[in-house]
Amino acid sequence: MSVLAATTTGHPAALGLLILASVGITFGYLLACWLWPFVACRRCSGSGKRRALFGGRAFGICRRCDGTGRQLRPGRRAINYLRTVKANDRSNRTGGTR
Prior knowledge:
Layout: H1 12-35, E1 38-40, E2 49-51, E3 59-61, E4 70-72, H2 74-94
Antiparallel strand pairs: 1-4, 2-3
């Protein structure tokens, strides 16, 4: 009696397509972060105002976005951090302040 092993035969084309799709999605998100760095604040829905807890009709400034109604995208925050790290590394190498 023959014993069948549970094996998978991977398709290299499917793996390549999956990698290509993930690179494309990542590139698209980074492009969106570069072109449109701000999104509407989730707490105030982009208005910059929040209703007071016990005030009924009273409004206050949204603390999350400081009343602007906009926040940086997480990807743009990462891009800014990496640019700061690169600038600090460059200034440490040259010995000057930048």
